[in-house]
Amino acid sequence: MSMPFYVAPEQWMKDKADFARKGIARGRALAALEYDDGILICAENTSATLRKISEIYDRIAFAGAGRYNEYDRLRIAGVRHADLKGYSFSREDVDAQGLANAYAQMLGDVFTHEVKPMEVEILVAEVGETPDQDRLYHILYDGTVVDESGYTVLGGEAETISERLKQTYQEGRGAGEALQAAVGALAGSDRTLAPDELEVALLTRNSSRRAFQRLTDAEIGDLLGAASTPAAAAAADDEAAPPTTNGDDSATE
Amino acid sequence: MTLPIYRADDDPGPSFVDLLSRVGQGPRWDVQGVPGSGESPLRMTHATTVVAVRCADGVVMAGDRRATAGHLISYRTMEKVFPADRHSGVAIAGAAGPAMEMVKLFQLQLEHYEKVEGGSLSLEGKANQLSGMVRSHLPAAMQGMAVVPLFAGFDTRRGVGRLFEYDVTGGRYEESDFAATGSGSLHAGTVIKLGYREDLTTDDAVELLINALFQAADEDSATGGPDLVRGIFPMVATITADGFARLEDDDVAARFRALLETLMTTRGTTSMGAAPGSPPTTAATTTGSKKKGGAAK
Description:
Largest sheet of chain A: 5 strands, antiparallel
CATH class of chain A: Alpha Beta
Oligomer: heterodimer
CATH architecture of chain A: 4-Layer Sandwich
Shape of chain A: globular
Number of strands of chain B: 13
Low-confidence stretches of chain A: 230-253
Order of helices and strands of chain B: HEEEEEEEHHHEEEEHHEEHH
Structural class of chain B: alpha+beta
Mean pLDDT of chain A: 88
Largest interface: A-B, 24 and 17 residues
Strand order of the largest sheet of chain A: 8-1-2-9-10
Structural class of chain A: alpha+beta
CATH topology of chain A: Glutamine Phosphoribosylpyrophosphate, subunit 1, domain 1
CATH architecture of chain B: 4-Layer Sandwich
CATH superfamily of chain B: Aminohydrolase, N-terminal nucleophile (Ntn) domain
Number of domains of chain A: 1
CATH topology of chain B: Glutamine Phosphoribosylpyrophosphate, subunit 1, domain 1
Radius of gyration of chain B: 21 Å
Mean pLDDT of chain B: 89
C-alpha cells in the first residue's frame, strides 16, 4: 500500500473544474435569447430525439449542454421538483428562481463532495407576464448561478459564440430575427446550420397555460426564411430547394 | 424543497403518483378505522350526471353543474368535465372531494409522463392509468366515497374518438357509442340511446347531450338543469383532432333556450300545473319540484 500524495485543496478544486470544463467543451453549444414575445432557445443538435431543450413547467424551460446522461437526469429532477411543488402548493408558486437554486445546491454539493463533478452547464428560463419578468438562469458545473439578461450561451466555445451574439443581439426583436441571430452566432462565419441540425423551442408570453413550444424542422425553416435578408434568403433557398445540394453536402462530409 | 434526484437503480420512473408515494405524499383515499359499509355516516357533497357520446369527428362530453349533499343543493356551479390533456377529457360523478382530487392527480400524471418521457401516453395507456386510480380508490368507495369517472379522447394514432366507462373497482369498459354515469345516467342514457346514430356530426352530438341532460334534470332531483335565473348552464366540451374545446357558455345557453322553446311549443301546458296560458319556467321546474318532493315526503 502506497500512501497517497498530499494535494492542496486549491489544486484539487482546479483539477475538478478543468475536468468539468473539458467535458462541457466537447459538447455542442446552445443559445437562449429574449425576443419580443418571450424567450427563444436554440441548440445545435443533429438528433431529433435526444433533446437538449425541454419543458419543465407552465412557463419554465430547461436546456443542458455537456454530458447528455447527466443533464437529462437533472432535467427529470427539475420536472419532478416543479410538479411536486405545484401539487403541494399552487401552480403559481412554481418559479424559475426556486428551481435554479435547487439545481445550484445540488451541483455545488456534487462538485465539492463527489469524486467526479458533473460535466454540465444548464439553463433555467422562465417567461414572465411582461418582458422585465423574463428570467434566464445559467448554472455552471460547480453550482455558480448567473442571472443573465438578454441572452446567454452554454456549452463548447461559449465565449466565442457569446461574443458573436453580442454583436447581433438586439432587444425586442421578432422570433425570426432572434433565431437568425442565434443560428448565426452558433454557426460562425465559415459554416451554415440547416434546420435539421438545430433544435429550437420557444416560451411564448401570451400563450395558454403551457408556454413551451418545440418547433419542427419545417417551422424552423419558415421562421429563418421569413426573417432573412434577401442575401440570406437566397442562401436558405439554395440549401432547401434542390435535393442534389443536400446530397453533395453529405458526400463531402 | 430539495431536488428529487434518484439513482438509476432506484428511480420512480415517469409516474407522478409513484413519485408522490416516494416523497411521502402518496394519496390515501380511504379513512383508516372506518368499516366499509358502502355508506358514509357523513353528509358528503356529491357530483352527479355526466355523459359522453362518440361522433364523426371525435367525442362530445357534457355534465350538469349541480352538487348535492343529501337532499340539499350544496353547489350550483360545479364543473364535472375537465380536460385531461390536449386530446382527452375526464368527467366525474360521485363524492366530489375525492373526485376532484382524482382529476387533479390524473391531469398531473399525464402531463408529468409527457414531460419526463418526452411524448404523450397512448389513449389506451391514459385510460389504464385512470383505471388504476379508481381501483386504488376502492377502499374509500366501500366507505361511501365512490368516484366513477368517464374518460374520452381523440386517439391521434387511430384517428377516431373513443370513450371509456369505469366501475368502482377500476373495471374499464370501452363503449362504442355513448356512456353516462351518475344519478341521472339512466334517463340521460336513454335519451342518448334513442337519438344515437352512427354518423352523428359534432353539432348533432352536442344537441343530443343537451337534450339528455335536460331530461335527466327533469327526472332526477340531484341533476341540475339550465338555471335561467342565474345564467348557469351545463358544461359541454368537444374533443376532436384539434383537441379539447369547451363550448362557450353563450352557445350552450342559446341551445338550451332553443330546446325549451321547442318543448313548450310542441307540448303545450298541463292544466294541472301553472295557470292556463302561462308557460312553466325552468326556475319553477328545478327549484319548485325539489320543494314539492320534500313536502310530499
